[in-house]
Please model this.
Amino acid sequence: MVKWSDFERAAIQDIFSKIDYDVVGSAALSRCLIVYPWTQRYFGSFGNLYNAAAITSNPKVAAHGKVIMAGLEKALKNMDDIKTTYKDLSVLHSEKLQVDPDNFNLLGDCLTIVVAGQLGAAFTPEVQGAFQKFLAVVVASLRKQYH
Amino acid sequence: KMSLTAKDKETVKAFWAKVAPKAEDIGQDALSRMLVVYPQTKTYFSHWKDMSPGSAPVKKHGATVMGGVAEAVAKIDDLTAGLLSLSELHAFTLRVDPANFKILAHNILVVFAIKFPSDFTPEVHVAVDKFLAALARALSEKYR
Model:
């Protein structure tokens, strides 16, 4: 079981209370598709992903950004057992979506950068540490059901 | 091998021109973050009295690192040749595991996002990420 310090719990809750869910999910996913274009392989049904402008304005990308944020919120609300909370999501990503789990780290890095941009100096090194630990637990839980 | 296009180089140089005045601050901040968020990187600095964010050794070394980045920007058309002596330094003297270049690069990007939120667009992000990866490859040239 993951141990969270009081600081980490508070920092992570604080981040999620401050960020704009509609903006962050979409911006992070867009960045991922732009910065690591091979990730587009999972979004063949999304239509126009030909360039950065197309990706940033694509409504399916925006909609999926919200799906991702909803998933993260589940983890946020169940911080003491993300592994169990994510069991079905892990099976989904492994068996149905067949996503190479290394991609989770790429999206995680983009999320960190977008959140940093939103929070500015309030995203201190220690807060960044807490957020990246949260993402690491999320990623590990998503990887758990890959066999 | 993912090479830098002409557009990538233009984008990097233009962005660097904007951020260069804050280079020392950026370096200090990125290094601080690396040491806090990836504590295993502290193993390279056991000779420092203080590794905390904002401390003198961190400030000084942040400036040194960004000086290297500035040099790389200037030599962007041939990073391998341009960073030869830095590569030898990292390979034979410092012996930094190259995995750490990626870690430091990530933290530099985080600092860019914080300090230049409107300039650090997705297009700039990909060009700068590619550049830092190319820089890391050039630094790793002499390792073996």
In short: Chain A has one domain: 4-141. The interface with chain B takes residues 30-31, 34-35, 52, 55-56, 109, 112-114, 116-121, 123, 125-126, 128-129, 132 of chain A (CB under 8 Å).
